[in-house]
């Protein structure tokens, strides 16, 4: 399959559904499984109001558990489709397919998944896309295995040929490559015309080496939504202020500055002395709505208001995500949107 018009759609473009994996007792969630299941029920319930949900389950027992919990919550069973497949973890933003389209055809980029630079076991997650493809979930699509380490949370697309990423993350994955070399690879694999790089920005408790989806996100009408910090005593203050300066210096393809939407800063959330990464930038856009992380913090409402302003015309739904950041991710990290048409 060849096309000169393939591109990586923006997240706010029409979707066929959202892919996620259900947590179970054989994953890292075992210690607090009930808490994360509650979040997953709220997440699936919100998505299912607007589009289908494709739920990966490890076996028939996990499927039965997910079905029962979702039924108890009144989730429309017609909107939930299940696929039995093995997985190491539930962060499908990073192990799921990065799908290009030309409007009629689809190309599933399947990058090598290394467990965030070898930090965790990832052999089953690295086979996830191939396993989904082999189950004929994407009729007519092409599967392209790419022997190059990359996670979906490491890149943002505006749908028009521009990618946004962080040097910290990609340099960790590929220390032998220059920025120019990695730019060429990204442009080639995503049919992009340019890559914007951020040097600064990080969150304590984030073990992804500064994934862009915890820091800054593209929004329609040449906008950027980003995590800010207004607490001068917080160790993130200088780093996120420097990132804000970088974002202000970026230009659109027309040479204009982006419209910036700074997100409020949640008060520190710790677990047994460990700071958790409570980023409001880790939200999910779906058909007709935006799902926004809520951490039980006074800043939750202001974050939802700002994200609503950056994505006008969409319903804003808060999803409790305190249980997710215990395992170093949030709402966006748990999910991968699939572009309209790819599910047949």
Task: Describe it.
- This protein has 344 residues and is α/β, with parallel strands linked by helices.
- The chain has one domain (15-339): L-arginine/glycine Amidinotransferase, Chain A, CATH 3.75.10.10.
- It has eleven helices and 18 strands.
- The chain has helices at residues 33-48, 60-72, 92-95, 115-118, 123-126, 128-134, 167-173, 179-190, 237-249, 300-310, 322-325, and strands at residues 15-21, 53-57, 80-84, 98-101, 106-112, 142-149, 156-157, 162-166, 194-198, 216-219, 223-227, 259-263, 270-271, 274-275, 284-286, 289-294, 315-320, 336-339.
- The strands form six sheets. Strands 3-2-1-18 form a four-stranded mixed sheet. Strands 4-5-6 form a three-stranded mixed sheet, covered by helices on one side. A three-stranded mixed sheet has the order 7-8-9, sandwiched between helices.
- A hairpin with a 2-residue loop joins strand 13 (270-271) and strand 14 (274-275).
- The chain is globular.
List the helices and strands and how they pair.
Elements: E1 15-21, H1 33-48, E2 53-57, H2 60-72, E3 80-84, H3 92-95, E4 98-101, E5 106-112, H4 115-118, H5 123-126, H6 128-134, E6 142-149, E7 156-157, E8 162-166, H7 167-173, H8 179-190, E9 194-198, E10 216-219, E11 223-227, H9 237-249, E12 259-263, E13 270-271, E14 274-275, E15 284-286, E16 289-294, H10 300-310, E17 315-320, H11 322-325, E18 336-339
Parallel strand pairs: 1-2, 2-3, 5-6, 8-9, 11-12, 16-17
Antiparallel strand pairs: 1-18, 4-5, 7-8, 10-11, 13-14, 15-16
